[in-house]
């Protein structure tokens, strides 16, 4: 538990330093704590330390955690692949979904979002490096999907998400993220209002922040190695 506090402080300091290095306010970058395969006690501890946003990849695991943490005002992000048989549960329980790559999934999430709830915040996942092992759409397909999502009432397009191929060089990391940042600007110019770049993890978050990331996804560096 003490490690979680030290780790959170270390990551928050790193975010602040990276933001300030490129003339941004530290609070312009949201920290999403990736809590998959971590116990409820760890999530509770991080919440007590001021962490509100948590990301989960596996629906059944996330549902169990939600049931045990109902008294906490947690903002839950679904950051795993989304199949059709998962959309109803995601639409009913989560605040965000980061991995939209098909209009069919977007429509199901919109239709299944309960009346009375705010629209589900969503990000389009972009496969920036054309990797067969990763989900996401090609960059040149983003505008069409974004326009379709923009018209759906039960969800709100917040922006774009990507997981680039690993790169050791800082400039190379920035170049990958710059493509996504440019696409977000293009969407805004076309009248599609969005504000989120979900990009950057432990190994490349500094480069992501330099290119405008508004949300970084950090897991092991907060909670330690997963079981």
Structure write-up:
- The protein is an alpha/beta fold.
- It has a single domain, classed as TIM Barrel, CATH 3.20.20.
- Helix content is 42%, strand content 18%.
- The protein is built from nine helices and eight strands.
- The protein has helices spanning 2-21, 40-48, 59-68, 87-93, 103-112, 142-150, 170-189, 205-210, 220-223; strands spanning 30-34, 53-56, 75-78, 96-100, 120-126, 155-162, 196-198, 215-218.
- The protein has an eight-stranded parallel beta sheet.
- α4 links the parallel β3 and β4 (96-100).
- α4 (87-93) crosses α5.
- It is globular.
- The model has no long low-confidence stretch (mean pLDDT 96).
């Amino acid at each position: 538990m003490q490690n979680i506090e030290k780790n959170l402080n270390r990551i928050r300091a790193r975010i602040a330093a990276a933001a300030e290095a490129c003339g941004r306010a530290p609070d312009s970058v949201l920290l999403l704590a990736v809590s998959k395969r971590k116990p409820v006690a760890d999530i509770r501890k991080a919440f007590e330390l001021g962490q509100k946003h948590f990301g989960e990849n596996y629906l059944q695991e996330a549902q169990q955690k939600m049931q045990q943490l109902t008294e906490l005002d947690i903002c839950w992000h679904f950051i795993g692949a989304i199949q059709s048989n998962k959309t109803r549960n995601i639409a009913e329980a989560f605040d965000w979904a980061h991995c939209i790559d098909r209009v069919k999934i977007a429509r199901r999430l919109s239709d299944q979002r309960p009346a009375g709830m705010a629209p589900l915040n969503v990000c389009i996942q972009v496969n920036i490096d054309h990797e067969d092992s990763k989900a996401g759409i090609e960059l040149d397909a983003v505008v069409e999907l974004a326009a379709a999502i923009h018209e759906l009432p039960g969800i709100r397009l917040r922006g774009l998400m990507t997981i680039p191929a690993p790169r050791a060089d800082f400039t190379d990391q920035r170049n990958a993220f710059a493509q996504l940042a440019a696409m977000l600007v293009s969407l805004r110019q076309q009248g599609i209002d969005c504000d989120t770049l979900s990009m950057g993890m432990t190994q490349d978050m500094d480069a992501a922040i330099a290119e405008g990331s508004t949300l970084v996804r950090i897991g092991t560096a907060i909670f330690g190695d997963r079981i």
